[in-house]
Structures are given as structure tokens and as C-alpha cells.
Amino acid sequence: MPNNLPLRVGIAGLGAVGREVVRRLLDGVPGLTLAAVAVRDVAKAKRALPGLESIDFRAATALADDCDVVVECLPPALFREVALSAIDKGRVFMPLSVAQLLQPQNDDLVERAKRTGARIMVPTGALLGLDAVRAAAESGIRSITMVTRKPPAGLDGAPYLIERQISLAGLNEPLKVFDGSARDGARGFPTNVNVAAALSLAGVGPDRTRLEIWADPRVSRNTHTITVDAEAARFTMTIEGVPTDNPRTGKLVAPSTIAALRALVSTLKVGS
Fold first, then answer.
1. What is the pLDDT confidence band of residue 125, given thresholds at 50, 70 and 90?
2. Is 224 annotated as catalytic?
3. Per the structure, how many domains does the chain have?
4. Which of 8, 210, 224, 251 is catalytic?
């Protein structure tokens, strides 16, 4: 499309992150325009975001009909159909449910994108130092480990806990609930470890990225500590993310998504 035209952005889902991304787009981001929104309850969305009166509402799978970028902010069960609609039409697909990219049923998405010319762009989200990890991967990484600590409510309902009948009710001390690969973590905690999924894709892959998950009643923030041992550097990073009203999601995800969108149209882009 001509460079002087704004990129048309479609948002699938208006949860805690989707609402904030829409609000920021409505406030105005040069080079971007909010073209359409997919949401289950249109009346509720309009009450929450008055600026939506002039925005087109449509099915999530129809966003890619004329939107250049489709941002996915949906429950995991709806991920694939939206991903396919955007990828098969050659759009930029920006998934926030990053852990879904590690699910077996979605193994074909990258190859489909290669055939159609689509791009799958994962925002940094709550991940600290993603640029450093990607740079380290160019020179060779020996190991990556991530330790995640969340308030027990932030892990509530995870399939891994339900299958193993692990209860976090009344927890008064830290409990390690998972120790394994990022791939297995994504399967067991599909709405809780998007950060680990992004880290694995940036670095050594989901099978070599080690992940620990702790339910920790002493913390009020989603805390991630990443240790990278690479040929070019060794570094450890810790980030404490403030949760949104959804305890599984941090407040940094929405501004990170806007930053990723802005990078698509910025003349000057800082960072890889």
C-alpha cells in the first residue's frame, strides 16, 4: 500500500488488553487507524469506549478482509480461526496469545505465512530484554532459563493444575507448580506463559528453553527472571509486571502492542 496511507488495524477482542489498545488508537497514533473491532457484546463495548460509535464491528474472521494488521486479543479457543483468516489473506498477524503458537495444532502457521506473504509479529509484551536475546541468538546461545512467580490468582484455572488436582487455595508460602520446557509450559498454562513462549521463539526454541512456574502469595506482581548464557554475553534480567484487572495479564502488554504497531510505520525505529 502507498506509504502515505495509514495502516488499517483490526482488533479481535476487547478484554483488558484489547480495550487499552483500542483506547490508545482512538486517541491517535500517526500512521495507524483503527478500522474495525470484533467483540461479542457490541453494546457493552460502546458503553465502555464511547469513541467506537464510528468504528465498524464485524466477526473476528472478517477483520482481515480489509485490515492491514489484525491484533489478536482473544481466548485461546478462538485463536486459530482468527490466525488463519489473517495469514491466508497475507496480512500482518499480531498475536497476544503467544503460547498458542507452540500448540501442535498451530505448527503450520509459519509455513502458511511464508506461502501467502503474511507476517506473524509478536510484541515484546512483558518480556524484558527481547532485543538482547535475539542478538545473542545470532552468535549462539547455550542455555536460557526463565523463572516466573505469580500471585496464586494469576494461575487459577490452568489446565496443568486442574489435571493434577493442584489446589492453590489458602496458599501461604511459595509453591513450584511446574518445571520443564517452555513448550510443555505453554500446553499446561496456555493463558499464563505468553512471556515464556515469546522468549523461546526469540532464543533457542520452546524445547530448549527451561521454565519454572511458582505460585507465590508473597508477590503482588507477575515476576519473571530470565538467565541467558550465550557466546557473546551472559545476562540475567528480572521484571515485575503490574497485573491488569485480569490477574493473568500485565499492564505492559497493551503499550507494548502499541509500540509494535508504531514500529510498522515509524521512520526511525530503535531496537531490532
1. confident
2. yes
3. 2
4. 224
